[in-house]
Target: Glucose/Sorbosone dehydrogenase domain-containing protein
Amino acid sequence: MRLQRSLVVRPPVSSYSTRELEDKVTPRIIWRATQTRVMVVLAALLVVVRFSDAAHARAPEPPAVPGSVAVGQSITCQPTSTPRPQPILPKGFTERVMYSGCLNQPTAISFNSRQTRVFVAEKGGRIWNCDLSTPTCTLITDLSSEVCNDGDRGLLGIAVDPLNDGKIYVLYTTPPATGACSGNVVTHGQLSLLTASGAGTGETKILPPAGSGNQTWCFFYGSHSIGGLVFGSDNRTLYVSAGDGASFDQVDYGQLDTACGDRTNLPQGAFRSQGVSPYSDGAILRITNPGTTTQSVAVVAQGLRNPFRFARLPGTDELYIGNVGWNSWEAIDHVTVAGQDFGWPCYEGWSPSNNFAAAPEPDYRNTGYCGKFVGATAPFFAYAHTSYVSVDDSHGKTCGAKPSGGGPDQNGSVISAIGFTDDTSTTYPAQFKNALYFGDLLRQCIWTMQPPNNVPQTFAKGLPGGPVDLKAGQDGDLFYVDLVTSTIRRITHK
Model:
């Protein structure tokens, strides 16, 4: 089976070996291994909030942000009065700006149990509690002194405890032990529990625990650090994602640095995602009873390059992962049982990752690790950087088409958000309820599908910026975080 330049559908296989995969697809490596990607997840956008020329787009300047806001202070986040074109949505849908003018690079949202308020995490470390009935947000804590806010690192994950609105879990990268948080420096991931009380908000470090001397994640480069947080169907189990901690623009099997201190006989670089490293990089963890004396941690998925965002299928504990690709593919991986391996760095999307094929064995005593690697789980869905994502896109030459109309822009793809709607909406048509949505920050579009169907249709195109988080919220409507314009947006149906 050869993958075509148009819509890519899933081959009827659940796992593949190198030889099996070579029989099913034709590898297409678009870039040289050393060529820097325009953006990986948040990319340079996080430093200078605009698209590069290579992405064939320029994002609007974000609204001005109030300079100094004290913890506990409430301010009006009035939606901007600047006219902005509506994205192109299916008939009956409208986008509404919920909060604008008070946020500075929001990255993630989580709703309280009654869905009357939304908690917003900013990349720099601030957390807001926003009223869904009025454009008012209260700053509830500021973790900026504890957060390494550089490159794609920062406060990137937030989840309100479904059983207790006073408990908020956050996921961020920590500053280096010495020196400034800038460029290639050793940072680690931190999962913490924030607890609201009359005296303010207290922080309990969950993973790794405070004073343990252990580190769960280690990162040296400016991307592929921690990712998102999702509660399980029991409302007690917490899932956590993290990238592989490797270089995002060079082949990295550990030869570039040993800054994280991996023992030389263990996988390093991108091979940390293969689960033998002392770090849980390139994986999704399941934490049972987080923050209690009975807390336990298990790996449910590994072999992931950068699972920046993932979502749980409502009513189940099946996970759908937005796995950010490298040279050729963006993938959605489907976790149905614990212990699945999605193949990175030996596979990217449908293809063997030829750049790593000759990489030494992780213990450096043998060669050809990827040549012997078997048992990887194939993607649920993947789209090539040189392909349209949906048939709709190919017909209209949208969501990645070059200005000349000659085809998609291979330099502009990054799966940056993924989430489900449920059946609580009284206004969304049936085909848009209980549906999976995923967004691409560079293509500036959102698509939808209803698993197990893995054929997407275009839902929103021509977004003003780009989504980095998608969640079902009040009235079952789809909300998304727009990092580029520093806004929270809501898509309603009349």
User: Anything to note?
Assistant: The chain has four helices and 31 strands.
